[in-house]
């Protein structure tokens, strides 16, 4: 019955009307299972009942009228128990509830399965027959499988159907891309030229096609330069690196060379751009790493920008009369740059994730963003929206009472931002005199600038992957020296911790592809660089040369799982230091040997900390990966992201073990995952004894304010209280109240 199942799902998916989809589903399921009746009951949010939404077998006039209260009848029992029920004669079951308007007197046997989407029961799928019999195991499996397949379809179809009603108000759910709240009218953007719809054509005038390409390359380059300049002059200067990615692609001789090859093969300039871009989009889209996967959107945006210039005359900047909420199927960094900052309230995107450049830019600019809302947006045009970047919720035409509450939230956030700004020049010290270091996470294309941040105590994690990703070959030693020197000189007198190359199975380089079945457990980080000492040594030497005369460099190894990896890396660092020192001794003096540390993100290292301590100078906890590996949860996977919990008991025990062992062996330890920048997370960590936190630029000020409002002795007592509770939510409740008592309850919206 697999073919029938597939056909039913495909037909329902293709329908844009919920009622039509349900009616078709009932009819097709009845025919496929050879039963006398198939019905769908959907749970209502506005009243506690299951409503007969569609049927093929019961009285048609009962659709939309017959209701079964929650907890009543066999349908209610299925919803309550969240499991299949198979009855030979349903009318003799104690929970049977007769529906006179449905005319179901003649039906005896009953098989029902719950329709569940993201742990929420949406309804119940039921088949019935007139004869008394138990349904067979194969029929049970078919109905359960169909219900599971249809859960997502029904959820999306319901949302699409709701949007068709201009009077509908409700909520769509996506991913929280950038924190904050915004209220405004939707402005739905559509590209003038869509890459997928451009038809390829042949050309006879090849020299003219090359000239057309040269012209638009210059135009788009000037356009990107202008965008980058506008961002530099605004308060979002840290976002400049996004446009470096675009400009690099535009000047990449390999990328441009491929387009010229297509022209030489007889294609028009536009067709050549389309063919090359589509091939590169497909390559990026198939990559396992979520950040690299999002680069397909950059290629698409740049290709459409080139095609727009080739096909249409430039229309100039976007003209907007009032601030808007930007809504689009896919939002690029350049689209955001085209909209004046004072006209952009928030962004909402159907495609994209928290790793997309749109989300990264939104966070850097302080603009709320919701990503990955999988719906068509045409019907949102000019409708009032609330974008909740904390929860990933999009509210459509919210009720006046809801609007009032969100306006209060926005006013409160503005007051808190002003409050946080007052401590920029102050020390990161608790009220009982404990000094805390607040460091910067930097180097990820656009999430932080390398320019001096006077509110930060240094750089706790500089990711070195971008110089490798932005080329069509491994960067030379001198190219790396230039990149690293820029960072180190920006923080003279402050520590800068550089992580060695962390690429591999899940972060592939375009020129060094690796194919693995499970890249997250594959050849990556220190595993790859130790296997290629020629790459590792060049990077270590570049870091050492870049640090000459500055003495603020420390080096950190990623993805370490064994002590042998640390010993091997130390030997290579020794060699690099000796060689660079010998080459530069006469000119520039002796190079200070840098501190060497490891990222604790692989759980195996938790059981080797005592033996690790003599081999390294410090360690830093990557809470993002450590949590994912401990809980076996990919937080970018929407189906399981809700069980990713940085305050899970296993994670907390691991963190306590790490700090306790660090104290015992007198090793500095820091936190460089997102938990460090979370209001509740940083309080819990301080209670455990952590004193060094590395975070994104946008979190520095608020965490500094929280630190200055706290007392470590009080936090330690709260930790003991939370540990005495059995339920996971105790930490959020107890430390949340601590924030509320200090007038910081508004921060709880973004906490964990």
TrEMBL record:
Single GO cellular component term: cytoplasm
Catalytic activity as recorded in UniProt: L-histidyl-[protein] + phosphoenolpyruvate = N(pros)-phospho-L-histidyl-[protein] + pyruvate
Chain ranges passing through the membrane: none
Protein localization: Cytoplasm
Co-factor requirement: Mg(2+)
SUPFAM superfamilies: Enzyme I of the PEP:sugar phosphotransferase system HPr-binding (sub)domain, GAF domain-like, Phosphoenolpyruvate/pyruvate domain, Phosphohistidine domain
Keywords: Cytoplasm, Kinase, Magnesium, Metal-binding, Phosphotransferase system, Sugar transport, Transferase, Transport
Broad class of enzyme this protein falls into: transferase
One example of a Gene Ontology biological process annotation: phosphoenolpyruvate-dependent sugar phosphotransferase system
Gene Ontology MF term list: kinase activity; metal ion binding; phosphoenolpyruvate-protein phosphotransferase activity
Domain GAF: 17-164
EC number(s) from the headed UniProt entry: 2.7.3.9
Record has Magnesium as a keyword: yes
Similarity comment: Belongs to the PEP-utilizing enzyme family.
Name the UniProt record assigns to this protein: phosphoenolpyruvate--protein phosphotransferase
Protein species of origin: Oceanimonas pelagia
Source taxonomy: Bacteria, Pseudomonadati, Pseudomonadota, Gammaproteobacteria, Aeromonadales
Gene: ptsP
